[in-house]
Amino acid sequence: MEILKEVTRSLLSNKVRTFLSMLGIVIGVTAVIMVMSLGAGMKESVTKRLTSLGSNIILVMPGIVGGSGGKIAQALESLQEEDVKDIESMCPSVKKAIGLITGNFLIQHRDKNTRASVYAAPSGIFQILNLKISSGRSFSEDEEEKNVAIIGQEIAYNLFEDENPLGKKIYIVQGGRKLIFEIIGVFAKTGNILMLNPDNLILIPYNTGKYKLFQSHKNVSMILASSFSPEAAESAVMEIDHLLYNKFHQQENYYRIISQEAILNVVSESVSIMNLVLLSIAAVSLVVGGIGIMNIMLVSVVERTREIGIKMAIGASRTRIMIEFLVESIMITFLAGAIGILLGILGSNTIVSAFGKAYGLKPVINPLSLLVAFGVSASVGLFFGLYPAYRASKLSPIEALRYE
Amino acid sequence: MKEIVRLENVWKIYDMGEVKIEALRGITLEIREGEYVIIVGPSGSGKSTLLHILGLLDKPTKGLVLMEGQDTSKMKDKKLAHLRNRKIGFVFQSYNLLPRLSALENVELPMIYAGVPPRKRRKRALELLELVGLGNRIHHRPNQLSGGQQQRVAVARALANDPVFILADEPTGNLDTKSGEELLKLFRKLHEMGKTLVVVTHNLEIVSEGTRVIRIKDGMIESVERRGA
Ligand SMILES: Nc1ncnc2c1ncn2[C@@H]1O[C@H](COP(=O)(O)OP(=O)(O)O)[C@@H](O)[C@H]1O
Ligand SMILES: [Mg+2]
Q1: What's the sign of the alpha-carbon dihedral B20, B24, B27, B33?
Q2: One domain for residues A391 and A287
Q3: A154-212 pLDDT, tens per residue?
Q4: Do A237 and A277 lie in a common domain?
Q5: Which of A7, B75, B185, B187 is disulfide-compatible with B79, CB 3.0–4.6 A?
């Protein structure tokens, strides 16, 4: 329309000032976009990591006693196989539960050795955890007593380097004894997730571990369970807690329950809080920017007093004058918003490529946030442009024409 | 001839706190279609004030202003702006063109306010610039034009929406003799075309062209001289 043309012309006629007046909004919008995209990216990457082993996971660990008054902190041997069964059968929100026996052992192959966490778990572990195997296979139910092992990437490298470990034999050294295992699979590289590092893990069948390696009776080192859905996670935790609380005669420090869902909630909450803090800083900058715009527009009204008088004299209504000024301030902020969005996208990508690669961080640009940024900057223009535009429209044509 | 505008006992008093300045003191006059009215008077006598009131740019402190028979005192800004836009063409001593716009765009502006479609208003603006003898300067900005040329652009702009009358406040005040003469000829041409003109001027040649000369002194009409037309 004509107004847009007219306004563009007046903006272009004073480029430096137009640009300076935009700065506050540009910075504000840049900050908003960066915060939103990095926040969302962070949440996404953390969530992705936390859920890469599967979802709805609940971990039950024995409690820790001691650690104060000179006593050595020690994990209780409180959890039993029976508890695993009870959790699975008596907690309606729990889909599956398994017991794990864990220990740290010296591992040998020929002249090489290394240390690794050995987990003895029933084949049901593959239904709870999404443990990816890069080569070979997992073990099945009818191998529960076989001496087979799946090893992590790190162990494979330490013992075999570039050799193919499949089918090779390793020794797990237990006191004076050595137990021989055949490697049937290698885990895909994952990194540390949920207190578990598959890269430095040796997984063996539960019964093999229980009878031959750990020679334990009924104790399990931890219980791994899954709920039917993310929504059921909270009730599953409560049911398990209720069950164990009664079992352990109301000694709640005998066990710890960690749910993936709770961790995810903490992550998303902290991202939200961080977003909120940074967004309020951005809001301040938008307000300051808005006041800057108002200032510039007021100056511009004064400067263009005569022009306003001329326009009124040849038939521009007060409304028309008001709209011209409003469109001008909205255009400034809209443009500033666009520049801010560009800088924001550029900035978050720069930050990510400088620091975020290692964490798999990627900025997530939500189209809604772009819309919000545009909307917010246009509203800032409207709001802070209102008063100057009103002032312009209220000028008396005669006084305005007289103005030098 | 049809009455265009009529003032009835119009007073304009500027309240300056301590003193009140009576710029107009009971002016009654009417302008009829086809007239070429000249207003003369010493500086500070109230000529500009009178013209502003005739042009609906200002409101009287007392008295009535009737535009084509309608009382303007209760009109809203929108209506007044509409009348200024369609019925009145203003020419100022200091041209008052918009500096960022070309001659053509300056002439188009009143038509933009009137909602004339782009093609039509461009055509009309070109015709008007041709009429005032600036057909070859249409893309010049005001600062690229001489005073006389700028004033002719201002006249073309005043004619844009084919107003019922044209008000000019000392239009030759800033012009050299030659440019003044050209403007005089232009006004004569407009008058011959049937336009109604109200011109405040000290230029004796223009005065001699008018069909009526109104002398103002101290905010009052001192004398009216009608010439055969
Ligand atoms: N806005 C104003 N405030 C106060 N006094 C004014 C104002 N405008 C005009 N006047 C006074 O009104 C009188 C008439 O002014 P004006 O109409 O401009 O005279 P002219 O155009 O005949 O020279 C002068 O005394 C002038 O000082
Ligand atoms: Mg004057």
Answers
A1: negative
A2: yes
A3: 889 888 888 888 999 999 998 788 899 999 999 988 766 666 788 889 999 999 989 98
A4: no
A5: B75
Q: Count H helices, E strands: chain B?
A: 7, 10
Q: Judge whether A64 lies within some domain.
A: no
Q: Which residues of A touch B160 (CB under 8 A)?
A: 314
Q: Is residue A59 part of a domain?
A: no
**What is the pTM assigned to this prediction?**
0.75
Q: B52 to chain A, minimum CA–CA distance in Å? A: 8
pLDDT tens by residue, A272-309: 888 888 888 888 888 888 998 999 999 999 999 999 99
**CA angle (A105, A106, A108) in 5-degree steps:** 135
Residue B67 has a pLDDT of: 94
Residues A15 and A94 in one domain: no
Contacts of A10 in chain B (CB under 8 A): 100
Claim to verify: residue A170 and residue A221 sit in the same structural domain: yes
Instruction: Return the pLDDT at A351.
Output: 84
Same domain flag for A216 and A126: yes
From the list A127, A200, A126, the residue with the least C-alpha distance to A158 is A200
SS3 content of chain A, % helix, strand, coil (to 5): 55, 20, 25
Residues A105 and A234 in one domain: yes
Strands of chain B, DSSP E? 3-16, 19-32, 36-40, 62-67, 70-71, 88-91, 165-169, 196-200, 212-217, 220-226
Whether residue A32 is found in the same domain as residue A112: no
Quick one: which of A352, A265, A321 has its CA closest to A43?
Answer: A265
Q: Is residue A398 part of a domain?
A: yes
- Among A247, A277, A299, the domain boundary falls at A247
Nearest CA in chain B to A310: B96
> Lowest-pLDDT range, A108-117, A173-182, A354-363, B24-33?
A354-363
**Phi and psi for A202 in degrees, rounded to 5?**
-120, 120
* C-alpha triplet B163, B169, B173: angle, nearest 5°: 135
Average pLDDT of the segment spanning B6-35: 94
**Domain containing A286: what range?**
2-49+266-402
Q: Are A297 and A389 a contacting pair, CB within 8 Å?
A: yes
Q: How far is B227 from chain A (nearest CA, A)?
A: 31
One-letter amino acid for residue A372 of the chain: V
End-to-end CA distance of chain A: give it in Å, rounded: 30
Distances (CA, A) of B69 to A277, B7, B63: 65, 10, 14
* CB B168, CB B209: distance < 8 Å: no
Residue A286 covered by a domain: yes
Number of structural domains (chain A) is: 2
Counting every residue, how long is chain A?
Answer: 404
